[in-house]
Specification:
The complex is a heterodimer. By secondary structure, chain A is an alpha+beta fold. Chain A contains 9 helices and 7 strands, in the order E-E-H-E-E-E-E-E-H-H-H-H-H-H-H-H. In chain A, the strands form 2 sheets. Chain A has a 5-stranded mixed β-sheet. In chain A, strands 6-7 form a two-stranded antiparallel sheet. Chain A is elongated and about 65 Å long. Chain B is globular. Chain B starts with a strand and ends in a 25-residue tail after the last strand. The longest helix of chain B has 25 residues, at about 515-540. In chain B, the strands form 6 sheets. In chain B, strands 1, 2, 7, 8, 9, 10 and 17 form a 7-stranded mixed β-sheet that branches. A 5-stranded mixed β-sheet of chain B has the order 18-16-11-20-21. A 4-stranded antiparallel β-sheet of chain B has the order 12-15-14-13. Classes of the chains: A alpha+beta, B alpha/beta. At the A-B interface, helix 1, helix 2 and helix 3 of A face helix 3, helix 4 and helix 10 of B. The site of FE2/S2 (inorganic) cluster (FES) has 12 residues of chain A, from loops. FE2/S2 (inorganic) cluster binds next to loops of chain A.
Chain lengths: ~250, ~625
């Protein structure tokens, strides 16, 4: 006999004046290879058709389905019920604006983030369709891709104490994004320009270094290494600008 | 109600949509992309394998050229494609890959010197030239004449989409995510924008534009089993179909992939079989060699899918709560191989199935994978039937894929077509003066408000949307799957007509307030059933086998009667069948119809054309349809 799973799910529809935040309980019989993707869809189709949650690729690739699963932020689509106790509590990710139930607005948060860090290659070169591509070492390309793997799921931001206390904290994900451009030879920004983006309490100096971000990252991005890398680099830039020594300017 | 004006409205923020919006942004026009999900979550991000472009930088790609790419594409299409478009595509793809490099894509690059590679389970050696060091490299992608697939590790779609979205941010192209276009606004043959539902608040909005583009990706979700994301549900197609004026091209051309995992239909790469994996049935016995003594598991994508389905029909499938499936066995390849060369497969199996493929069998079944059909456009990406409406990417039938698309050609199509169509849109907008007729807009909004209140109030009936959707998927799956025949297709069409009746009587069980997901499903169910009918009815009429369209009762490819494209219209909202028209598949035949070099060989030639005999031993060649991912 398969287990009966008890789901406690956060419910609130901000668009319904009568709705108040509360927990709803649903019971499902567990099936083989059941994931939270399967379970939540069954609950919506069989028990409560108004239940809101976000899935897209359902393959652990797109980052849509971040939620707090038994106290820990993670991707719901690749969470198997057999790895969880029979009582499962699901909450929306904190920090992001709630859309309803388990659905949050990560899109606006990330769009603001990449506008702040100007998440694109800054180059003065023009593209010439007739020319051969500019060459790059394969090692460099792979190193950039390692940091480019972030799926913007928001788990790291939700797990971060600083981000929960301060609205304007950029978070490990933004600092990782900056690091991605710092190591890209195509990007012509100077250290000083990067410093203006992240060399403050909203950026690298606000981080308490407690590692929660890296622990929950489903893509296993080396967030701590990037934080340390930027802290060192920005520390040096800070000292340089403190003494505003002309010859130190890049 | 909010009304938003923009020069260019792009419905869809995947690679095709954003690439086109960039052209508008660069030309100084305002552009807004709509998307159901944040742009970077679009299905384009799921493509891992890579994108084809004949750069010819790598040792195994030497001598490649757009001409060779063109030939592969036309053969792949089983001569169902528009050859002018295939030519345009093959010529532009290398420039687009370089442009992406300029914008920031970290393409893998040529590393000079000796290295090893595997083919058919055997090890070989290649030497990359010193002079090509640092140029964009390519990997093998089933059966193409050359190594031509540019890639970024195992995350090509992800990396390219992030770069293109960055470029949009830089240019100020807006992306309005969690928004859904539910109808086009059009009058007297001109498109003026769309009525859109906000998926954060449930409110309706109007977007008015000089040009509108549909770039909403595939519609795999009308099938029960698909590798497609849950947002690939045909919303853009439905908006176009409901105008009555815009036809869908070749809707019967649906590609199936042999190895989606059960239950979630996530794709595991064909590399498993390429490297020596086998397919087993309920008795854990191999069966492919019985049907295809020569090629067994290594037959082409469509052929393997066909035999797997046949075997399940014979009662040899494994029963599961999610339906019958078969097993993929890679255990004999060993731990080193599986965690090395098949790392992705290993990760998918462990994180989604709790199956360790080093010691356990992987449950698989053939699964819907790609929609060759879609909004029919001309070679400029302009939709038939409405001025000011364009389409590109998987949503469109631009038609370089014909009846079967090659792996790596779709992702490349999104950026190539996005660029070309984007430039055509700019030309169009610069020459267009548009005046909006407010009564037309009011009427369009009123019609949508009426639909919503009918659904929430249950005015038309109380059918459950999820039950209706399941009935549609089930019917389509049985009737218009990998194998098709007259009797099953007739049953399918009749069943779908009945389901259409039910879809017209859907009423919500919940309150429909805010971003209510049941309302979103209910708003598109009738349109989805119409699409399913276009697939099934088109397949019923097409009495031949071509590419992915396989008729058990008409096994030959019939160039004499069917070298043509189906155009499916839904002329009146109350109709219960689409209206089908036909046009020639291609106005130019640079490459006259002939033998593809793999797969089936019965061909009924065009008038005045000799039946070409396949070369000796040609059937033993490897498929050109391998290797998405
Ligand atoms: C698992 C998998 C692997 C693949 N691997 C490869 C590969 O290696 N190589 C290759 O060439 N091809 C591959 N493909 C195919 C390829 O990924 C797709 O065909 C391609 O990415 C489609 O891109 P697109 O821009 O047309 O649409 P998508 O990327 O699907 O974007 C569609 C957009 O439209 C939006 N949208 C949809 N409906 C609406 C609506 N009603 N209103 C507003 N917005 C809407 C969505 O939110 C999304 O932003 C793969 C496909 C799958 C399923
Ligand atoms: S290490 Fe820094 S960024 Fe990471 S969770 Fe802690 S405070 Fe946040
Ligand atoms: S860094 Fe990791 S946890 Fe944070 S958003 Fe990216 S993928 Fe998610
Ligand atoms: S749905 Fe895409 S990561 Fe979970």
């Amino acid at each position: 006999m398969a287990r009966l799973l008890k789901f406690n799910i956060f419910r609130y529809n901000p668009q319904n004046p009568e709705s108040v935040p509360h927990m709803d309980e649903f019971v499902l019989e567990e099936t083989d290879s059941m994931t939270l993707f399967i379970a939540l869809n069954r609950i919506r189709e069989e028990k409560d058709s108004s239940l809101q949650f976000d899935f897209c690729c359902r393959a652990g690739i797109c980052g849509s389905c971040g939620m707090v699963i038994n106290g820990r932020p993670g991707l719901a689509c690749h969470t198997k019920t057999k790895d969880l106790p029979s009582e499962i509590t699901l909450l929306p990710l904190p920090v992001f604006r709630l859309v309803g139930d388990l659905s949050v607005d990560t899109g606006s948060w990330f769009r603001e983030m990449y506008n702040k860090v100007e998440s694109w290659v800054h180059t003065s070169k023009q593209f010439d369709p007739a020319a051969e591509e500019e060459r790059m070492e394969n090692d460099v390309a792979e190193a950039i891709y390692e940091l480019d793997r972030c799926v913007e799921c928001g788990c790291c931001v939700s797990a971060c104490g600083t981000a929960r206390m301060r609205d304007d904290f950029l978070g490990a994900v933004a600092l990782n994004r900056v690091a991605r451009f710092v190591i890209d030879p195509r990007d012509e920004r100077t250290d000083k320009e990067y410093y203006e983006i992240v060399g403050n309490d909203n950026g690298i100096f606000g981080c308490m270094g407690l590692l929660a971000c890296e622990d929950v990252c489903p893509k296993h991005l080396p967030l701590q290494d990037q934080l340390a890398f930027l802290r060192r680099k920005m520390g040096i830039t800070a000292i340089k600008s403190l003494f505003s020594c002309k010859s130190c300017k890049k | 109600m909010q009304t938003i004006y923009t020069d260019v409205l792009v419905i869809g923020a995947g690679l095709a949509g954003e690439r086109a919006a960039i052209e508008a942004g660069q030309a100084g026009l305002s552009a807004i992309c709509l998307s159901l999900v944040p742009a970077r979550r679009s299905h384009s991000s799921a493509a891992q394998g890579g994108m084809q472009a004949a750069l010819g930088n790598s040792a195994m790609g030497e001598g490649d050229s757009p001409d060779v790419h063109f030939e592969d594409t036309v053969k792949g299409s089983d001569w169902g494609c528009d050859q002018e478009v295939a030519r345009l595509f093959a010529d532009s793809a290398p420039i687009e890959m370089r442009r992406l490099a300029h914008w920031g894509v970290p393409w893998n690059r040529v590393v000079p010197g000796k290295s090893k590679y595997f083919k058919g389970g055997k090890e070989f050696e290649k030497v990359e030239k010193d002079e090509n060091r640092g140029l964009i490299t390519a990997r093998a992608f089933g059966g193409t004449a050359k190594w031509r697939t540019c890639y970024v590790s195992d995350g090509t779609g992800h990396s390219v989409l992030f770069t293109v979205d960055n470029r949009c941010a830089q240019l100020g192209v807006e992306v309005h995510d969690k928004t859904e276009a539910i109808a086009l606004i059009h009058d007297a043959g001109v498109c003026y924008g769309a009525v859109v539902r906000c998926l954060k608040t449930g409110e309706l909005r109007v977007y008015l534009s000089k040009a509108t583009m549909i770039a909403t990706g595939g519609f795999g979700r009308i099938y029960p089993n698909t590798t497609n994301a849950v947002v690939c549900d045909g919303g853009g197609h439905i908006a176009a179909i409901n105008t009555g004026a815009v036809p869908m091209g070749n809707m019967e051309a649906v590609q199936f992939h042999p190895t989606g995992i059960v239950p979630t239909d996530i794709l595991v790469t064909e590399g498993c079989r390429g490297d020596g994996g086998t397919l087993l049935d309920v008795n854990e016995e191999r069966f492919m060699h019985i049907y295809e003594p020569e090629k067994a598991e290594l037959a082409s994508r469509d052929v393997v899918s066909r035999w797997m389905t046949h075997h399940i029909r014979e009662g040899k499938g494994v029963k599961s709560p999610y339906g019958d499936h078969l097993w993929l066995d890679i255990r004999h390849l060993g731990e080193k191989h599986i965690t090395g060369k098949l790392r992705e497969v290993y990760e998918i199996c462990t994180s989604f199935l709790g199956v360790d493929p080093i010691h356990q069998l992987i449950p698989v079944r053939p699964t819907q994978h790609y929609s060759m059909g879609g909004v029919r456009t001309n070679k400029d990406g302009a939709a038939y039937g409405l001025k000011g409406l364009f389409s590109a990417g998987e949503a469109a039938c631009w038609d370089m894929h014909g009846f079967n698309r090659l792996g790596g050609n779709s992702l490349a199509e999104t950026v190539v077509a996005g660029g070309i169509v984007g430039r055509k849109i700019v030309e169009y907008v610069k020459g267009a003066e548009v005046s909006f007729n407010s009564s037309v807009i009011d009427a369009a909004v009123a019609a949508q408000r009426q639909r919503i209140s009918d659904l929430t109030g249950g005015a038309k009936g109380k059918e459950n949307v999820y039950a209706v959707r399941a009935a549609m998927q089930d019917s389509l799956n049985r009737g218009a799957n990998i194998f098709r025949n007259d009797a099953d297709l007739k049953t399918c069409v009749a069943e779908l007509q009945e389901v259409l009746g039910r879809a017209r009587k859907v009423g919500l069980a919940s309150d429909g307030l805010g971003a209510n997901p049941e309302l979103a499903a209910a708003l598109k169910i009738e349109g989805q059933v119409k699409m399913a009918l276009m697939v099934a009815y088109g397949a019923l009429q097409r009495t031949e086998s071509r590419g992915s369209h396989n008729r058990e009762d008409y096994t030959a490819r019939n160039d004499r009667d069917w070298l043509k494209r189906t155009l499916a219209y839904w002329k009146n909202p109350g109709d219960d069948l689409p209206t089908l028209e036909y046009e020639p598949a291609s106005s130019v035949l640079d490459l006259p119809p002939g033998y593809r070099g793999y797969g089936k060989m019965d061909i009924i030639p065009m008038e005045g054309q000799e039946a070409e005999k396949p070369a000796e031993g040609a059937s033993g060649k490897k498929s050109a349809e391998k290797g998405d991912k």
